[in-house]
Specification:
alpha/beta, Rossmann fold, 5 helices, 18% helix, 7-stranded antiparallel beta sheet, 31% strand, Elongation Factor Tu (Ef-tu), domain 3, 6-stranded mixed beta sheet, binds FE2/S2 (inorganic) cluster, 15 strands
Amino acid sequence: MPRQHSALVEGRAEPVPGSVLFWLQCPELAEALRPGQFAMVRVRPEGDPYLRYALPLHRSSSTAVGLYVTSGEPAYRWLGALDIGERVDLVGPCGRAVELPHGGANVGLLCQGTAIAPLLGLLEAGSGAAQLVTSVPTPRQAIPSSLLPTRVAHSSFVGRRQDPAFWSTAAEVVRWAEAVYTVGSTAFYRQVRATVERERIVTREGFAQAWVWRDMACGTGACEGCLTPTRHGPRRACTDGPFFDLLDLTFN
Ligand code: FES
């Protein structure tokens, strides 16, 4: 059940230019948080009437959560100015937690662009091997491998000219992995789905899951502002997702 928390900023870093990674001291939230979940974050001073902003979280220690924000997020402008010792007001954890097939499962992660934040929680889940394949516009936007757990193999492809190499590596990962998680655009998801359908003769339900982001007004299933079309009818991204079975999603 999501609860309101006041988290203390105990660390911050800039892994790539135009991004900020916070470590927020908040033992109760860190204890409750599971991979795939997010928080509704107040991104303006207390008393501001505007709604909260939904942002993915990951556990960074037993008492702290990580919050990674890039300049593409409207929330970056305010959050990027926060410093160590300040507090962040958030409500969470929200959303459906993602379960790996088993604790030692080999996991493939496919990411388009710099919006890697939803995958960070999954990189820290389980004890199996993980392969992260990213496609970024410029070399400076590739997340440093030094920030990733040592069991993660990271391949980064830069620019559209490397798209064929990216998709070739993605196909290998899809064949190798026991579960695949992905974040990117609708066009990207179409191509990941085509790759899964081509490379896997048999896929179990939920083998490939895609992060679906909608504007979230409440984050708790009350407003229906985040309805997502699926083969089973519309589903709420904030409570049934944000990770959905990629093969269930319907794209217009
Ligand atoms: S954001 Fe309100 S129902 Fe999902």
